[in-house]
Amino acid sequence: MEYPNENMGKIGTIDTSSLVDKAEERIVQYIQENKMVIGDVLPKELDLALNLGVSRTVIREALLRLKTIGLVESKKHKGAVLRNPDVLGSLRKVFHPSILDDATLKDMFELRLGLEVGMADFIVKNITDEDIKELEDIANQVGSGDTAQTWQVEDEIRFHSKLYKISKNRILLELQVMLMPIFNYVHESGLLSSEVVTGDFVSHKELVEVLKTRDADAYRNAIRKHLNNHFKRILG
Amino acid sequence: MEYPNENMGKIGTIDTSSLVDKAEERIVQYIQENKMVIGDVLPKELDLALNLGVSRTVIREALLRLKTIGLVESKKHKGAVLRNPDVLGSLRKVFHPSILDDATLKDMFELRLGLEVGMADFIVKNITDEDIKELEDIANQVGSGDTAQTWQVEDEIRFHSKLYKISKNRILLELQVMLMPIFNYVHESGLLSSEVVTGDFVSHKELVEVLKTRDADAYRNAIRKHLNNHFKRILG
DNA sequence: AATTATATTATGTCATACATATAATGATTT
DNA sequence: AAATCATTATATGTATGACATAATATAATT
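^ inputs. structure came back:
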């Protein structure tokens, strides 16, 4: 029983949603019922207010929410126009190490590792000869004289960013862009057990060689091994 | 050259951000500079307005954005209190097939497949004997008489939801919950090439058997095969 | 026809007032 | 003294009206 008093039965809940909540709901409903598509414009604020029987203030706040999650975009004189929602856009502002708790940061660290292994099939499917050439170039840049830590990190990012691009999956790519700073933050923070160095490390060069075979299973195993040091830190 | 007129050189951009944009920025800045933590409350709207030299309306809209992305939560009488951001919360409203374009939907279909394969290590790491028992129960419920399509789908969802839970990764779990309806929608829509049936299918029961060995590599291969029909539809 | 003024319109911002819920305080009871 | 209840103060929620601003449509000019 989830009520404080055992004798207290369920009597139904009261609608505590604010006017803005309701207005937002109705507007989304309006969009769906009218089968509106990208580019269509919503009725102007005053009309919405009049029709829903609330003040313009409420409508503005409801619309602002829709703007914030990227569903609409407001143009002066024209109104709120539907846009192809930048699905992950709303995440961008939240994805900062400073405002996330440790558990979440760790989850994201994991997420990135998982994504990279999980997208093997999509990489192999879409990779072109030019892509391979490009990856090879990046992989070769290491060792070319300067082996300072910062350069290594940059090459690391370039190489893996390229992999995401090859996957031709926009969501994946955007996720990666947002996850990368968090990953690096966690990597360098004291959040995880200290780094370990294992024997059978797969280098970027070797990854490229595997990619040349266009064998997804083989690549999946290779990238998993490549990331093994990271995995070890969370798997213990 | 990205300017209409070749003769037009770069003269620097003008800050076109609205007052709300700036206010939002300053508030986030305030949070970081003061090293505020979960539970702390922001100054009240009127104080923020006075200090930033804008109207309360602007402050309210800025705060509303932060509320929408789940960074703060406003309590009457108290103010805007920092909350552990529900990172994916803002996605919930956008994740509806009706408002996403086909390309994005397909990307999400892929994402789910990738996640499931990519999280193999985390499942194997965290799985308990009870988890295995539970998975076994779900797997056995299939075939117990009723083989209607709807039941199959429900068992499918139950089984895979359980897998995500086992991963003990909240982000992964939340993503899955949001992705599932989209996945089903795409699965049933005419968006992908028609379904194919392959020979070597790995069943839920077999997956459980593999999990008993606690071998992440083996499980990764198994789940990849289990999802092979889905993969085939996008890989062609 | 092309450019330049003008008017119109819908959003952006401001100011003020009041409603409402809740934290804090004080009064009452046991 | 502790617990309960009533009161008050306070910060957000909502409403209203006004004006600023930018973009569109229209008219005027070249």
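Residues 18-20, 54-58, 61, 75-78 of chain A lie near DNA strand D (CB under 10 Å from a C1'). Chain A has a mean pLDDT of 85.
thumbs up if we can close this ticket
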